């Protein structure tokens, strides 16, 4: 069990906080984890600095959406499995219901000019948002480390060339940094733990050929939740490779729209999996995709939580996290190029993407939802003129 000081808040208070954050928390994973620190550590003092940092470290090393995992961990700190479960649901459900509504509207009205116009503008703005997010993550996490920059560049190139993401390369990147920095002398049997996820991934790839679409959705999104490292944006290249290239569930245009939905809704970015599931198989598909994505990250947070407090500061683990993080950020950077090729189709969309990046770069206080709304309005005006 984790040894922590007595809570100064009730579980219900924490649930209400995460309900609010899940409903109004825009800005992506980096912003969301920042809100949690500001509110829960600095202002309310419900969570200690050390508990927050340990949760953040665990969320970085474990695959899955960063913000959702940190929320689950913070729920676990004082209220253990019950707290982790209820906090996780409170954080994810608001955006899930919003995505269901957007999925219904997209299916019902997607052929209408106004709907196409909105996504024409928002899809282009999303490229600028992801580009700036990738830049922030890169400068914050990689610094001047040449080894990490090499991993970053390699994964960016692989993502651009293959238009997909290989989970095994993330594990390999972590193992490489661990090996170079720590120069381990362990028996080879202990190294097998680092490669454990790869056979599971191969099993998922093999069985995902089942003809039943719902089973395919469950298997694919379980793999997404279990093998995608880094922030929520890291799932974008992985989803593109599976949803568009492998299974052909969505067109490239629909996939960019799905990423746009993730940007215009609050809460975790990976909730876009529910939108994709809805487009493929309706409400059933949305529920299965969401559950398959979040259950692995839930389990991979609560199961190691009692032990991570003891071993989280071990140099070998820190090195492994650094390698995985560099690989994840490289994949995000590569996904910017892949998605830009699909979203930037003419001069107005190019200007929108560039303008979004410039605004976020120059005006630090501007919020992504404001840009998204502005892009949607521009799309409503420009799209009918261009088509």
TrEMBL record:
InterPro entries: Chr_Tranpt_l_chain, CHR_Transporter, Chromate_transpt. It holds the Pfam family Chromate_transp. The chain crosses the membrane at residues 12-36, 56-76, 83-106, 118-135, 147-180, 217-243, 255-277, 283-305, 317-338, 370-386. Keywords: Cell membrane, Membrane, Transmembrane, Transmembrane helix. Signal peptide: none annotated. The keyword Membrane applies. The keyword Protease does not apply. It is found in: Cell membrane. It is a multi-pass membrane protein. GO terms for cellular component: plasma membrane. One of its GO terms (molecular function) is chromate transmembrane transporter activity. Belongs to the chromate ion transporter (CHR) (TC 2.A.51) family. This is Chromate transporter. It comes from Agitococcus lubricus.
């Amino acid at each position: 069990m984790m040894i922590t000081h007595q809570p100064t808040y009730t579980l219900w208070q924490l649930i209400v906080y995460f309900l609010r954050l899940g409903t109004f928390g825009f800005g992506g994973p980096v912003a969301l984890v920042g809100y949690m620190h500001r509110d829960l550590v600095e202002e309310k003092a419900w969570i200690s600095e050390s508990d927050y940092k340990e949760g953040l470290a665990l969320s970085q090393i474990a695959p899955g959406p960063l913000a959702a995992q940190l929320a689950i961990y913070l729920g676990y700190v004082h209220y253990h499995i019950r707290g982790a479960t209820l906090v996780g649901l409170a954080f994810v459900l608001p955006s899930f219901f919003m995505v269901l509504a957007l999925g219904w509207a997209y299916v019902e009205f997607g052929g209408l000019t106004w709907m196409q116009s909105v996504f024409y503008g928002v899809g282009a703005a999303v490229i600028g948002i992801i580009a700036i997010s990738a830049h922030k993550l890169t400068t914050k996490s990689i610094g001047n480390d040449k080894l990490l920059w090499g991993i970053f560049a390699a994964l960016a190139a692989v993502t651009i060339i293959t238009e997909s993401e290989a989970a095994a390369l993330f594990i390999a990147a972590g193992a490489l940094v661990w090996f170079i920095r720590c120069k381990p002398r362990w028996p080879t049997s202990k190294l097998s733990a680092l490669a454990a996820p790869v056979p599971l991934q191969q099993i998922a790839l093999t069985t995902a050929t089942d003809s039943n679409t719902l089973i395919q959705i469950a298997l694919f999104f379980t793999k997404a939740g279990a093998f995608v490292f880094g922030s929520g944006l890291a799932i974008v290249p992985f989803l593109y490779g599976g949803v568009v290239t492998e299974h052909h569930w969505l067109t490239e245009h629909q996939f960019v729209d799905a990423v746009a939905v993730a940007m215009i809704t609050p809460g975790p970015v990976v909730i876009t999996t529910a939108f994709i599931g809805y487009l493929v198989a309706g409400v059933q598909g949305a529920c299965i995709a969401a559950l398959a994505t979040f259950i692995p990250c839930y389990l991979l947070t609560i199961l190691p939580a009692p032990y991570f407090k003891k071993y989280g500061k071990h140099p070998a683990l820190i090195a492994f996290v650094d390698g995985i993080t560099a690989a994840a950020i490289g994949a995000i950077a590569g996904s910017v190029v892949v998605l830009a090729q699909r979203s930037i189709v003419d001069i107005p969309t190019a200007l929108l993407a560039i303008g979004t990046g410039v605004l976020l770069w120059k005006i630090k206080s501007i919020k992504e939802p404001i840009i998204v709304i502005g892009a949607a309005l521009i799309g409503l005006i420009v799209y009918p003129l261009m088509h």
